[in-house]
Amino acid sequence: MRTVSYRKGSEGLSLRTFLLDIYSTLYNTFGPQDWWPAESKFEIVVGAVLTQNTNWKNVERAIANLKREGVLSVEGILENKSRLPELIRSVGYYRVKTERLVNLMNKIREYNSLEEFLNLPMRKLREELLGIKGIGKETADSIILYAGNYPIFVVDAYTRRLFSRLGIIRGNETYDEIQKIVMDNTPNDEYLYNEFHALIVELGKRYCRKRPLHTGCPLNKFCEGVDNE
User: Fold this and answer.
1) 86 and 118, same structural domain?
2) What is the pLDDT along the chain (229 residues), one digit of tens a residue?
């Protein structure tokens, strides 16, 4: 069994115990995050594309525009391709994201409904999503977890930063390698993966920034950086 022994406070812990200790500490500190912030599964799918390289406030503005114009649907997006860049301008890279949204809508339209698409077996759903031009692993897994309600762990920049600082990874691992570390060492549970990802994002915004803010951080007991300040 792999153990974690090179960060303070984790000496001799199995990786499973260490990961679950991190999760429970964050959960007890921040409480349930109840992600994804959306009114429907379709909003989750659209938001997962729009949130790439921007903050959620910008996504909310874009989705509000789509709702106001009555185009927040598969057909609405496909029939208003020329208008989309202006409607989603707030998220940045709006022409690229328009193309990605259109590609995704075309894939969904191959099925009878979004529900049918999301109800594909998880492996098949991931394969379909990753086959869409412009849809990467983080976006695909966000859709699978938050809209499809399948147990899959989403890896993002906050995850990589936190796990590097805690010694769980070296920092040069691939997306799949980091995901496997978590999923091999935690219960295969949709709620846990949902909350764990959201809690790591919350920690990253508050404390585990590019320049870390250690004062008040709930994971100080595990973080070697505290001793190096």
Assistant:
1) yes
2) 444 444 555 556 799 999 999 999 999 999 999 999 899 999 999 999 999 999 999 999 999 999 999 999 999 999 999 999 999 999 999 999 999 999 999 999 999 999 999 999 999 999 999 999 999 999 999 999 999 999 999 999 999 999 999 999 999 999 999 999 999 999 999 999 999 999 999 999 999 999 999 999 999 999 876 655 5
d(CA 143, CA 229): 39
Instruction: Name every residue whose Cβ is closer than 8 Å to that of residue 39 and which is 6 or more positions away in sequence.
Output: none
> In the listed set 124, 147, 170, which residue is the last one of a domain according to the structure?
147
Domain count, the chain: 2
CA–CA dist 9, 13 (Å, integer): 9
Among the candidates 121, 147, 173, a domain finishes at 147
CA-CA-CA-CA torsion sign (108, 113, 115, 121): negative
Same domain for 63 and 124?
A: yes
Q: Inter-axis angle of helices 175-184 and 157-165, to 10 degrees? A: 70
Count other Cβ atoms within 10 Å, centred on residue 170.
Answer: 8
Which pTM value belongs to this model? 0.92
Q: Quick one: 82 and 164 in the same domain?
A: no
3-state secondary structure of 222: helix
Rounded CA separation 87/68 (Å): 10
Domain range spanning residue 211? 3-33+154-226
